[in-house]
Amino acid sequence: MSDGKESPSTAGLSRRTRQILEVVYRLERATAAEIQQALPDPPSYSAVRTHLRILEERGHLTHVSEGPRYVYTPKVPRERASRGAIRHLVDTFFEGSVAHAVAALLDTSSSKLSPEDVEHLKVLIEDARKESASRSQDAAARPARSRRGASKRKGEGK
Prior knowledge:
CATH class of the largest domain: Mainly Alpha
Strand content: 5-15%
CATH superfamily of the largest domain: Winged helix-like DNA-binding domain superfamily/Winged helix DNA-binding domain
CATH architecture of the largest domain: Orthogonal Bundle
Number of helices: 6
CATH topology of the largest domain: Arc Repressor Mutant, subunit A
Order of helices and strands: HHHEEHHH
Strand order of the largest sheet: 1-2
Largest sheet: 2 strands, antiparallel
Oligomer: single chain
Shape: elongated
Number of domains: 3
Radius of gyration: 23 Å
Structural class: mainly alpha
Distance between the termini: 45 Å
Mean pLDDT: 84
């Protein structure tokens, strides 16, 4: 699931800072004034700028100058950021168990699943089953190869 690049964590962000980050992802690029307008019960302009600075310092956003304004964009692609957030959610609330997380989601949304959704989930589960079996076979083969290599090396020294 990991692509080797770590996404900055949203774990230490305040509720308002996360709201601002969500607005920037939704708008894709925005000025502080546009972000302020898009927020529920908006804070002051200077408070928005403070949150934006925090998000930049923590690696979530970047900005470019366009005349007198800064235009903010997400630094991490939405898909990678969402994978990091889901990983954090699973670790925090489901003790790292993807199965428990999926079961909880299905429990709360099963009445809303269309037949197409159910079929899509079946395909994803089958793909995960195949990938897991493949990894298990690879892991079982690795120790056997390394043991053979170790015994050959021992014999070479005699």
